[in-house]
Amino acid sequence: MSRVLIIEDEDAIAELEKDYLELSGFEVETENDGMTGLKRALSEDFDMYILDLMLPGVDGFEICRRIRGEKNTPVLMVSARKDDIDKIRGLGLGADDYITKPFSPSELVARVKAHLARYERLIGSNMPENDIVEIRGIRIDKTARRVWINGEEKQFTTKEFDLLTFLAENPNHVFTKEELFRKIWDMESIGDIATVTVHIKKIREKIEMTNKAQYIETIWGVGYRFKL
Ligand code: CA
User: What is residue 212's predicted lDDT score, i.e. its pLDDT?
Assistant: First the structure.
């Protein structure tokens, strides 16, 4: 749920804004003093700020400037006078929008929704996509370290996951047990290459649907190969 912080010293207006935004599904917090509002705006995470211009303590101009110094969260400024809007623009505070009192609450809600949608798209486009390996019904999300077999999620231990991922990323290539052991386990670890055999068995129990290996083949006397 999106959280909105309203900083407004006229209680009736703050209540009106809060009621309408809550009816539209937003979580709303209000502060009626500039200094308290500014502290909250900077110390907590909100998805949008609605700032009145004239406030006791610290005014809306200053709050906007301070928020912009730290965050890209959308800011909607509310003012009682039309000429204040020119002032806001002139100061280049980085507010995203302005609305003058009196305004219709539904107009306010529409604007908040539009700014939030735009902001979420912006954040979404900056998120790198997860690194996915997909082969014949097996989907490995390397970033989230999750595995799905024919759409059903299966749990793998760390080494099982690493081994399966390594084989799936290098299909049609035979690896000896020694190679796999060196690759997946610590180079220095004094291990038993039988560990590899045990892990392959565990992985197969989770990914193979029949007794005949569909994915990881045993190449007798050599090692294992992930079938393409
Ligand atoms: Ca005011």
Answer: 78
Domain 3-123, CATH homologous superfamily name and number: Response regulator (3.40.50.2300)
Q: Calculate the alpha carbon distances from 116 to 48, 106, 112 in Å.
A: 7, 15, 6
Q: Where are the domains of the chain?
A: 3-123, 132-226
Can 3-123 and 132-226 be said to share one CATH topology? no
Shortest CA distance to 196 belongs to which of 179, 210, 211, 212? 179
Output the CA 218–ligand 1 centroid distance in Å: 75
Tell me the mean pLDDT in the region 164-181: 94
Neighbours of ion ligand 1 (CB under 5 A): 9, 52, 54
pLDDT at 21: 96
User: 41 CA to middle of ligand 1, Å?
Assistant: 17
Structure confidence at residue 189 as a pLDDT band (50, 70, 90)? low
CATH class of 132-226: mainly alpha
Whole-structure pTM value: 0.58
